[in-house]
Design goal:
The chain contains 16 helices and six strands. Strand 1 and strand 2 form a beta hairpin. The protein binds arginine. Arginine (ARG) binds next to helix 5.
Length: 450
């Protein structure tokens, strides 16, 4: 039985039922019940329902809540959505007084509320997960000690940096992914309950009461906006999307690190898969799927924006589709954070030393430190690179006479700047790729992550 059947002479066609019924929203069950309990409290306080009705509704809802918590709540094929299912079950438990629950409320403000409660709940979970993930990166950075690698630009070796510095870049990105969830939580702190179908109600409600009991800071200022806007849902999906892109970049790096060609890292057997054909294979599938699944979350971002772009005011059924996108984005992020965190925590790093060419900028900076304009120093070292490469040599086997061939202002100490180990030790710029900066970063990150 639908909530609206009486207006129709015909029962809904099976085709309509299958096309329109929402089952994705079942996971809003606990939020829907929390919202209904707060609504009853408000109805009672303003005197729209009397004490005994309020008591009956509350007890009934608490009974349904207990069923929901223990997993005994049963959805029926005849339930149009989670809201209908709760009202149906409440009626089964307490009889006709259940009909008072929906006073001064519509499924339009109800679903907007449920969604906010849900986002608030899972955003807190995702924040904790991101923190654990970033801490795992900080631990990995600490574990690799003073290992030096090349940092790449244009996929070509650029400068020598501590491996820890490279790993920590992802921790800083994760910190901003966390901040985006925290920031969104502030905007979510406004209850839409009381907006009704979109125009408010003639009954003497007080939306502040239900908002306060649900822990919201404030209430909606416009009932049309309250039921028709999904910008916060879209923002939630984007925040998931950006976090997935952070993870996808890390996943791509982790895949490169494990190649024969890079040889930076290996992952635990239990975090990798094998090949049915090639016995030697050890495949980092979790990282591949993290990269792959970010594509579908990017799709969710596009879809939830597109869902809103042409909607006339106010509520339209199109909005039902927001939940699937939001749940999918959030589930994917939750799973991916766990998978990559485990892989990072179990990774063993032993990268090869970078090529000696990563010292070229340091060599130019040695001249610059003595007052030679950087552009000129760059030119001089460039000439040295040409000289050495055309002789099939590298910076590693250059000596002072090679340096003097291109400029006699070089001194023998400049050759020391060429070694990657020396380079990361002498680098002093704040936040730069040096061991001291890494120590500071790990400390700071751990403080920021609590
Ligand atoms: N399932 C609907 C949604 O998710 C709930 C609101 C339905 N409102 C309505 N007037 N049919 O948007």
């Amino acid at each position: 039985m639908t909530l609206w059947g009486s207006r129709f002479e015909d029962a809904p066609d099976e085709l309509l039922w299958h096309y329109t019924v929402d089952t994705a929203d079942r996971r809003l069950l606990l939020d829907d019940l929390a919202g209904s309990l707060a609504h009853v409290g408000m109805l009672e306080q303003v005197g729209i329902v009397d004490d005994s009705e309020g008591e009956a509704l509350r007890r009934g809802l608490e009974g349904v809540l207990a069923e929901a918590r223990s997993g005994d709540f049963e959805f029926l094929d005849s339930d149009e959505d989670v809201h209908s299912a709760v009202e149906r079950r409440l009626g089964e438990r307490i009889g006709s007084v259940a009909g008072k629950l929906h006073t001064a409320r519509s499924r339009n403000d109800q679903v907007a509320l449920d969604l906010r409660l849900y986002m608030r709940r899972v955003a807190a979970d995702r924040i904790s997960q991101i923190e654990l993930f970033a801490l795992a990166l900080a631990d990995a950075a600490e574990d690799v000690g003073e290992t030096v690698v090349a940092t790449y630009t244009h996929m070509q070796q650029g400068q020598a940096v501590p491996l820890a510095h490279h790993i920590l870049a992802y921790a800083w990105m994760a910190l901003r992914d966390r901040a985006r969830f925290e920031d969104l939580l502030k905007r979510l702190d406004e209850s839409p309950l009381g907006a009704g179908a979109g125009g408010g109600t003639s009954l003497p409600i007080d939306p502040e009461i239900s908002a306060t009991s649900l822990g919201f800071e404030t209430v909606f200022g416009n009932s049309i906006d309250a039921v028709a806007s999904r910008d916060l849902a879209a923002e939630f999906v984007f925040v998931c999307g950006q976090a997935m892109v952070t993870l996808s970049r890390l996943a791509e790096d982790m895949l490169l690190w494990a190649t024969e060609e890079y040889g930076w890292a290996t992952y635990l057997d239990r975090h990798t898969t094998g090949s049915s054909a090639m016995p030697q294979k050890k495949n980092p599938d979790m990282a591949e799927l993290a990269r792959g699944r970010s594509a579908s979350v990017i799709g969710d971002v596009t879809a939830i924006l597109a869902l809103q772009k042409g909607l006339p005011m106010a509520y339209n059924r199109d909005l039902q589709e927001d939940k699937r996108l939001l749940f999918h984005a959030d589930d994917t992020l939750a799973g991916t954070l766990s998978a990559l965190r485990a892989m990072i925590a179990g990774a063993t790093f032993s990268p090869p030393a970078p090529s000696s060419w990563v010292g070229a900028l340091d060599l130019a900076e040695a001249l610059t430190a003595r007052g030679i304009p950087f552009r000129e120093a760059h030119h001089i070292v460039g000439a040295l690179v040409v000289k050495l490469t055309s002789a099939g040599r590298t910076l590693a086997d250059a000596d002072l006479s090679d340096l003097h061939d291109v400029d006699n202002r070089f001194v023998s100490a400049d050759l020391e700047q060429i070694s990657p180990e020396h380079s990361v030790r002498s680098r002093t710029s704040p936040g730069g790729g040096s061991h001291t900066s890494v120590v500071t970063q790990i400390e700071k990150l751990r403080t920021l992550l609590g």
